[in-house]
């Protein structure tokens, strides 16, 4: 294996790192117009590179917060733009980048690292577990109408993209976040600005105003098929609502836009209630269910102490974390909280599996049945299901 150096990148090296990453996912380099926006997506000091002696690999992060069960927001980093040059893969470069990042995150007091995986099998070896999932939902607009008893109220305001980029961040910040949602720092909104401005069709936003002010928004675009341009599909990029009335109002607006055949909403929560609002539920369809965010518990004690739990008998969970061994050990998890213990374990699992359980997406009993959790106490899986379960499905809705 070749020797290489891992170090933090300077601002002047960000574009080369961006181009290297884009090459690894088979995208062309950013042109000058795109780089104006892409450059602002780099948090100062957040990118690292592997050099041998030229740049052969890169990864970066930005600071944010993750909402956990109970509503607390804890420090997280979003990990992105991870790539290794094609002629230097399988030589330990990726492992060096990821473990260097993890050590830095732990030293900085980060509780979670969060990423979207290009391939499902890559990041579990570094302690990342699939923690949120999404579904893509489409509606035949010609048949898709809301039930007459669907909530009604508030006012809607249509915005162009420039105005939307001014208004939507504040609306998003003011909403109650479900488990798995994250804050959207300025660097993330700059990424969205780049993506929305380069979209082939004009992007618009609609904001719902409730009694207390803006309480929801959706961004969308309408495009035609290449062969039959008169066949139009409305694509929903973002849809966030702080109330049932706002949710119904936004969908009522989208389904009421003329000269549209289909409305497609990508990356929706698994428990999104849109089909329950439709007068004809067969006018809608779940096109896809996929994995969304993978999280890494960087500080297991802080993560377990930071969320609330359901009502069940306490369970002792023994965690193994070979990359950050300070996390390893037994934790007593119960309705009153979680903390270290010297009591014998009822369940044994690695930190990757703990990440899958943490936000409530996967039931411990199901993971035990799949052989991913070792059961020492036969009563522990059912109790853990109740403790880690959540009222709503974990979901982020943010991509980076």
TrEMBL record:
Q: Which residues form the N-acetyltransferase domain?
A: 4-151
Q: Which InterPro entries match?
A: Acetyltransf_17 (IPR041380), Acetyltransferase_Eis (IPR051554), Acyl_CoA_acyltransferase (IPR016181), Eis_dom (IPR025559), GNAT_dom (IPR000182), NAcTrfase_Eis (IPR022902), SCP2_sterol-bd_dom_sf (IPR036527)
Q: Which UniProt keywords apply?
A: Acyltransferase, Transferase
List this protein's GO terms for biological process.
aminoglycoside antibiotic catabolic process
Molecular function (Gene Ontology), one example: aminoglycoside N-acetyltransferase activity
Highest taxon, organism lineage: Bacteria
Provide the family line.
Belongs to the acetyltransferase Eis family.
Please give the PANTHER family that the UniProt record associates with this protein.
Answer: N-ACETYLTRANSFERASE EIS
| HAMAP family registered for this protein in UniProt | Eis
Q: How does it assemble?
A: Homohexamer; trimer of dimers.
- The name this protein carries in UniProt is N-acetyltransferase domain-containing protein
């Amino acid at each position: 294996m070749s020797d290489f150096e891992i170090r933090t990148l300077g601002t002047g090296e960000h574009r080369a790192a961006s181009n290297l990453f884009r090459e690894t996912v088979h995208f062309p380099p950013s042109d000058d117009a795109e780089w104006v926006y892409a450059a602002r997506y780099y948090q100062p000091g957040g990118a690292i590179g592997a050099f041998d002696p030229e740049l052969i690999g890169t990864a970066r992060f930005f600071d944010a917060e993750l909402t956990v069960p109970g509503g607390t927001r804890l420090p997280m980093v979003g990990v992105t733009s991870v790539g290794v040059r094609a002629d230097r893969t399988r030589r330990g470069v990726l492992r060096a980048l990821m473990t260097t990042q993890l050590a830095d995150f732990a030293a900085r007091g980060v509780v979670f690292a969060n990423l979207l995986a290009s391939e499902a099998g890559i990041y579990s070896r570094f302690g990342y577990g699939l923690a949120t999932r999404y579904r893509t939902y489409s509606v035949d607009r010609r048949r898709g109408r809301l039930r007459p008893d669907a909530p009604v109220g508030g006012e809607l305001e249509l915005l162009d993209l420039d105005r939307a980029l001014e208004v939507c961040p504040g609306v998003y910040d003011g909403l109650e976040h479900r488990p798995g949602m994250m804050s959207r720092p300025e660097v993330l909104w700059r990424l969205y600005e780049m993506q929305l401005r380069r979209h082939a069709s004009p992007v618009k936003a609609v904001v719902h105003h409730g009694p207390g002010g803006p309480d929801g928004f959706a961004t969308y675009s309408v495009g035609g098929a290449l062969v039959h341009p008169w066949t139009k599909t409305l694509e929903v990029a973002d849809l966030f609502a702080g109330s049932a009335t706002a949710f119904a109002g936004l969908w009522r607006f989208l389904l009421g836009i003329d000269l549209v055949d289909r409305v497609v909403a990508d990356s929706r929560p698994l428990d999104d209630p849109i089909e329950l609002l439709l007068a004809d539920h067969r006018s809608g369809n779940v096109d896809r269910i996929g994995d969304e965010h993978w999280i890494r518990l960087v500080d297991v004690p802080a993560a377990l102490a930071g969320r609330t739990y359901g009502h069940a008998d306490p369970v002792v969970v023994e965690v193994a974390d070979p990359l950050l061994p300070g996390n390893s050990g037994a934790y007593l998890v119960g309705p009153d909280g979680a903390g270290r213990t010297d009591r014998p374990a009822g369940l044994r699992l690695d930190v990757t599996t703990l990440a899958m359980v943490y936000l409530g997406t996967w039931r411990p009993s199901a993971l035990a049945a799949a052989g991913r959790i070792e059961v020492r106490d036969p009563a522990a899986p059912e109790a853990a299901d109740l403790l880690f379960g959540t009222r709503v499905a974990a979901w982020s809705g943010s991509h980076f």
